[in-house]
Write a structure and sequence with these properties.
Layout lengths: L2 H6 L3 H24 L8 E7 L2 E9 L9 E10 L14 E2 L7 E7 L2 E6 L1 E5 L2 E12 L6 E9 L2 E8 L10 E2 L3 E4 L2 E8 L19 H13 L1
Antiparallel strand pairs: 1-2, 1-13, 2-3, 3-4, 3-8, 5-6, 5-9, 7-8, 9-10, 11-13, 12-13
């Protein structure tokens, strides 16, 4: 073997160690995100009492903030609240809730239009991400979106809505106020926020990309001009 190439050869043990560290880092990062949903990850949380039991639900666009004309959607992380300190959404004593994909859905609203999407359990390389649910779809218009999570929650009619924040997100804050949403569903606190989807032109390079709506508008202008 050429001596120059031999000097650059990486021992297999080093490769194995590097891969192991990478995998452990990914698992550790996933654990942090799953157990501590806060504004660092651009999610809006609600502490909701459903039929006498407290839950934290964190909602945002998939891949927050989401990009117009790129596959994304809405996602939710659902946990039981810390029984000792329920107002603390970042407590490490919260527990993920599974099985809600069978009875809950997302109704997505934009302007005067809405569409309902199934809720699906998220899976990764190690299995199900318990408590993490998604409704994949493509945002097609630069506007404010409402994500209404609704359906049957263990026999209780459930309905709660999260709205994206246009522009720059405000500083993190939490409001502790009791509001009855539906019979059997009471909101106790609300915290954080998430951004509205951004135009694809904001991340395009070297030339800005046009949205499908803009392209269709120009075609219509050309045809009628």
């Amino acid at each position: 073997m050429d001596s120059h190439l031999q000097k650059r050869t990486v021992p297999m043990t080093v490769v194995v160690i590097a891969i192991t560290i990478t995998l452990l880092t990914q698992v550790f990062s996933t654990t942090i995100i799953s157990n501590s949903m806060n504004t660092a990850y651009g999610h809006a949380g609600k502490l909701l009492n459903v039929n006498g039991k407290d839950y934290w639900i964190w909602v945002a666009s998939i891949g927050e903030p989401g990009i117009i004309d790129v596959k994304g959607g809405a996602e939710a992380y659902i946990y039981t609240a810390d029984p000792v300190d329920p107002l603390n959404g970042d407590s490490n004593k919260t527990k993920p809730v599974e099985g809600l994909d069978a009875t809950l859905k997302f109704d997505v609203m934009a302007g005067n239009k809405n569409k309902t999407f199934d809720l699906v359990q998220v899976w990764n390389s190690t299995g199900a991400e318990v408590g993490h649910y998604e409704s994949p779809f493509i945002h097609t218009v630069d506007t404010t979106y409402d994500y209404k999570l609704f359906g049957d929650w263990n026999g209780t009619k459930f309905e709660a809505t999260w709205t994206c924040t246009p522009g720059e997100l405000p500083e993190y804050s939490q409001t502790n106020e009791t509001i009855t949403l539906t019979e059997g569903v009471i909101q106790k606190a609300e915290s954080g926020s998430f951004s509205c989807p951004i135009p694809i032109s904001e991340i395009s390079f070297p030339e800005p990309s046009m949205s499908n709506v803009d392209i269709q508008g120009r075609l219509n202008s050309t045809n009628t001009g």
